Amino acid sequence: MEKYGLYLGCNIPFKAPDIEQSFRKVFPALGVEPVDLDGATCCPAWGTAPSFDLDTWLTISSRNITLGEERGVDLMTGCNSCFGVLSEAKHMIDHKPGKKGVVNENLSAIGRSYTGASKVYHVAHVLYDKIGLDRIKASLKFSLDGLKIAVQPGCHILWPSDVMEVKEKNSFYPTQLIELCKVLGADAPEYSRLADCCGMGAMRSTDQEKSFGLLKRKFDSIKEELDPDMIVTTCSSCYLQMDGAQKIFRERGIIDYEIPVFYYTQLLALAQGFDSKEVAAISQTSRDAIIAEIQADKRKVQEEVK
Fold it and tell me: pTM for the complete prediction?
């Protein structure tokens, strides 16, 4: 069985543990073993250590990567920010003169050494590039035939692409999540603001109105151009923003609709037949109706669709 070090980051275990459970269901079902990285810490995200002490940031990031190195596995993370931070830190350590020496001098104080042997993957990359669409399709028990999805790739899985070892062919025209949704049987059309930021991250903390302005513009594009059954993302921050802010928007009278939001592996787990109470139990915007529709007896099973 293939193995990857499961780097969870902070948001998923603390705010969306059902996403973590979906990882622990779907990957073994696809022949991949998620290896726990005991002792992992915050990546740490932009806006924290990188803002005031670059070498400390590189040391903390490299320490997390060494947890994979000592287990002989590459890392995979379901958080776009973690993927972007670890990828950028790894690129800087590997390519900027002197940085590898600095971090290893710091790591020596705790008996560690960074070699650069472990790559950093996003969950979406493992699903698309390593597992592949055919294996995903073969694992399904339910089809999403007849359902329409608006995809949200998020920012930090796409840019800055020049520091990423694993990435989309064209970061300005992302298609992997569209293909991952289509293999479930759903329709996943493009829309004009597909690659736009959702407004999460530091902006949400420092200027909520600007953050919500970006999100409202994206919601308008999604609703007016697609009117989808759901939104699907592979970014935990986008998930939290697009799910939670809808409730605030409805309370303020900004929108009068609900669009259920899923992290991709939650939807995949449902299509594989796993219990929604384990893999999709926590949300601010109700998903009950669409989950019931996916798993109802009337839904076509995958064998009928092939």
Answer: 0.94
